[in-house]
Amino acid sequence: MILSVKNLCIAIDGKPAVRDLTFSVAAGEVLGVVGESGCGKSMVNMALMGLLPDGVSASAERMEACGIDLLRARSRDWRALRGGNMAMIFQNPMSALNPCLTIERQLTESVLHTHGGMSRASARAEALRLLDRVGIAHASARLKSYPHELSGGMAQRIMIAMAVASAPQLLIADEPTTALDVTVQAQILQLLEEIRQDTGMAMMMVSHDIGVIEQCAHRVQVMYSGQIVESGNVGEVIASPRHPYTRGLVAAQPGRNGQRPKSRLTTIDGSVIPITEEVEGCRFRSRCSRTDHHCVQPPTMQRTEANSHRESRCHW
Amino acid sequence: MSLVSMPSADTNEVVLRVENLCKVFRLPGARGQVFNALNQLNLAVTRGRTLAVVGESGSGKSTMAQLIMKLQRPSAGRVSLRMDSGMRDVADLPARDLYRKVQMVFQDPYASLNPRQRIWRIVSAPLCNYENLSRDERRQRALHYLHQVGLGETQLHAFPYMLSGGQRQRVNIARALATNPEILILDEPLSALDVSVQAQIINLLQDLQRDLGLTYIFISHDIAVVRHFADQVLVMKSGDMVEWGDVDQVLENPSQAYTRQLLGSMPGRPRDLPVRKELINVMAGG
Questions:
Q1: DSSP structure string for B141-208
Q2: What percent of chain B has pLDDT over 70?
Q3: Would you call B285 an interface residue with chain A, using a CB distance cutoff of 8 Å?
Q4: What is the tens place of the pLDDT at every residue in A194-238?
Q5: How many domains does chain B divide into?
Q6: A211 touches chain B (CB under 8 A)
Q7: Which domain range does residue B34 map to?
Q8: ipTM of the complex
Q9: Cβ contact A182–B267 (<8 Å)
């Protein structure tokens, strides 16, 4: 396993927010994480990268990445991990790049971080190779550009180049295509898939878009209000979701389940309960259409089929 | 691309017509350099129907909306609107008459509401251009429109920060409804919302259209939503009109290569579908 997490809990100002997350990612595998805003997706990423802000703390029974125990990692270990075996790309590539520095400066920084004693000239050559790898034309001219001269798609390609500079074993992609046009999104997803096939890196792909996850992930885990509510093979989960929340999420997408144009879409009533709010029993209970007396007990993840790896946090 | 023939009296009544509409922006700095945001756009919008406008960023979708709303002046061509007296050029219409007929809902529900005003004030603000209303009357009217979008008394005195994204977008729609318009221009009204909330807003827009007979111009980049929601679709690229027609026809049987590329880019299809890969490579090259 490249990444193995057991009972990860994250608290904001001492209040539990993310609760008992257990999951793992194998080498070369793409794990999709789906959830709506405020479900804790990004906080999990930050915890994995050791980037949680002040006042937010993480605890776990186990949290290991690339053979390193993240629970005991000191700042030196973190520095070696980030931009080493683990890398991350973000939702908005424009705000992730430094507007005052050229692409060359920013890209060679990643290269030099990986290859300590490299000369400036070879770092530049490596940067050119990376730009070429992520499909940027006229690479040497692009090195002189500043971020404002790039389109969103090109900026995201450069973020990917910086991330894969160190040939990471795990890439965390936090909504990498949300800010992009659909055609550009398709190109970026294709690029990530190509790199994954070439290098065998594992990916954790976080998105609110079920379509994106369906296209690029092998397994999916659905998050709701700080918990994993369903997990399993991507095709199976989307084709026949077990948890009422996943069911609602899939049905809310136009064009799924053969809805007729102009028909009423299925919605999930109510709104997401704040992630730090304490709830008795199931956290989805207040919005669920099929609740009974079992639902006042906190549900656990249960296997839904005898011989598959699908799990759902619902007693139904 | 041909203009639709003159419509028959009521069933296919054209309420908005765009003819040879162009917008050229002068680029800053370099002298004489221009950017063609919109080239020779022709289209007609039918009463009670939804026209979807799809295209990538920079395709001219929002420029079109701004020209219709007179927020920009066209470089050439014209927009005409059906008034009681017949089709009238928007350029000759006083703003107050135009905004009675056409209203707009913006993309970002977080940025398009004044954070320092209470909801009743925001929703009833458009009315103050037409009538002299007391505070109580304004609140009453605001409540009426909030009811139409599924909100109520609880939100009347709230500030925007107290509301969720979906509720804010409902407030935006309520404000647009306040002048009893016939046409709503919806500029990516769903893209800032979560999937389950998107579905609620789509349902609301469909209900309002049915109950109030509204005409929608729906700007979007989400083909699945367009297929579900629209009657006609206009595909745009770099300011040019690529294709225009009924949704079934254009999306099921696109005549233009670009429309096919756009459809092929929709996420969620199986991996390694050969057609898909080929399309993506074409686009990456072009």
A1: HHHHHHHHTT--HHHHT--GGGS-HHHHHHHHHHHHHTT--SEEEEESTTTTS-HHHHHHHHHHHHHH
A2: 90
A3: no
A4: 999 999 999 999 998 899 999 999 999 999 999 999 999 999 999
A5: 1
A6: yes
A7: 11-107+183-283
A8: 0.82
A9: yes
